[in-house]
Amino acid sequence: MRLNLKAVLLFLTVIVMIITSAVYMRCVEFTFPQDLVKRWDRRLYAVGNADLLHDQLDGSDDGRGGIATNDGFNLQELQDIECIINQEYTVHCKRDGDNREVYVPFSFLRHYFDISGAMSSPASPLTTIDGKSDSQAQSKFLWMHSTAKINVPKGKYDARGVFMYFENYNVEIRDRVKCISAVDGVPVSTQWEKKGYFYPTQIAQFALSHYSKNLTEPEPRIRMLENVDSVQANWLLPSKISNLTRIWHPKFNSSVIQYETASDFDSAIALKEIDQTLDLVLSADLLLVTNSSSLMITVENRETKHTYRVHYVPVDLLLSVQDENIYYGLGLQALNKWHHLTRDLHIDVQKGMALDGPKKSPIRVKRTDLRILAVSFLGVGFFDNISLSTYDHMANFYDAAEWLVNNQDQNTGGWPNPVRRSLNGFAELKAGWLSAMGQGHAISVLARAYWKSGGDKRYLRAAALGLKPYRVFSKGGGVLARFMDKYFWYEEYPTTPASFVLNGFIYSLLGLYDLNSTAPSFIANEAGQFFQQGMNSLKNMLLLFDTGSGTSYDLRHLSLGVAPNLARWDYHATHVNQLLLLATIDNDPLISRTAERWKGYMFGKRAKHN
What we know:
There is one protein chain. The chain is an alpha+beta fold. It folds into three domains: about 80-115, no CATH class; about 165-180 and about 200-215 and about 395-600, Alpha/alpha barrel (Glycosyltransferase), CATH 1.50.10; about 220-390, Jelly Rolls (Sandwich), CATH 2.60.120. It has twelve helices and 26 strands. It has helices at about 5-30, 105-115, 200-215, 345-355, 395-405, 435-450, 455-465, 500-520, 520-540, 555-560, 570-580, 590-600; strands at about 60, 65-70, 80-85, 90-95, 100-105, 115-120, 125, 135, 140-145, 175-180, 185-190, 220-225, 245-250, 255-260, 270, 275, 280-290, 295-300, 305-315, 320, 325-330, 340-345, 370-380, 380-390, 480-485, 485-490. Strands 15, 16, 18, 19, 20, 21 and 23 form a seven-stranded mixed sheet that branches. Strands 12, 13, 14, 17, 22 and 24 form a six-stranded antiparallel sheet that branches. Strand 1 and strand 2 form a beta hairpin.
């Protein structure tokens, strides 16, 4: 059979056209639609599974038993899929019926990207980033790159004023504070040793917090219970052997109350039916004659009706609890010596409950739950000026300032840390090490005490002596280090090799600035030289801490040749707050520009790629 060449060519042409058309039509079916990655709708915050989307979407029944959103999205069309993460593991996810979007559990995103999130309550309107109130009565999901707070300075930093943003600090309520010593009136730390010790940095922060609160909070309410000269209370004498006398004491050059009772609770002289809430700070002047003498405060939890008896006794005891009795020791040195006592009874009860309760989750009591029922005295002694107030910030401040004066090493000028400290990769710091942060904080306290007291030179001398460790390298017992044999640095932890911790260094600079601003010139000049030396180092080294998405806590990646020690967000926020404050002192644009860039990292911004 003969084939017609033209017919064959025509046939082949038709076949090619059919195949081409089919392929074309097939390709059209797989063309990516323009709305494959739709514009992110803020209502569609998924938190792990489709059920929680009900809280995010303003939807209605679609007539098929599903929930349809305003744009036709159907929750029942979500399909289970496995997301393969970096070819390493899978995560259970969801996708919609049109394959337009994939929903990844927020519980995974939170850990993967180190972010935070929480559902808001419809009952409480939210404040958006731009400061506007969103009062829509529906739950919303709050996505936060960082929960840390930025505190923008209200003006130029004043060495006599508020210290940074420390009016927001409440050092005494921290879990790592065992209690407030009844002997010294300062916190006892358990941060690195469970039995408790005096941590100079923490004590200085306690002082700076109360000093700052004194400048920012309204005048306290004060209720005088007994002042022999003007306010005389009706004290109850339950026993014939109990007596109380108001006398003029020539030795004390004042009118005081002299009392004597037996040692049992039933014989105590007492001021009852006080019924005081909220204003729970007790102040008293007392002199106890025998070691069986004590001051006892009866406090009730109004919610549980549980009663606590808080005792202040002249024995060498920090804190002890026996049933409902909480004991604080005033020290044997309190015998036959006048002692001004300032105690926050809410803190004293809370710390006693924490000592006696479960360690992992200590029982909490609200300040508003407590009520003072009675003030009692046992044994033999004298007292005067018994009052209750909202707070007594300056008494707390001066207690800490006195501790710093009395516990400074007169040879080194430092305030030693009495515990060992281990930092990964560095040689262990032996007990007695000094911290530039502790030195700076202490100098900030003493500079303010010197100014506020009208020039008490004890505070000035201690602050000036506190400069000595700035002259001595860490290996010699000081706090000084040098980066690349060029830039001087003041070490928060005097490690070997140097660690170059940023936040502690800047706090040490603020102490130098405070002393330079308040002391006479012969002291101020040296503090100013150390400050300028440190600022020069900071400007030349600051960008070494920038990771492009956050900051490094220190420079161990350069000292030890290891991975960077990234600052968690609260420390990163401290870096930002410190730079914002320094920018009010030094107008070098490097400081303010870096602060703004680092602030942006807290909102998810990152340095650009190449």
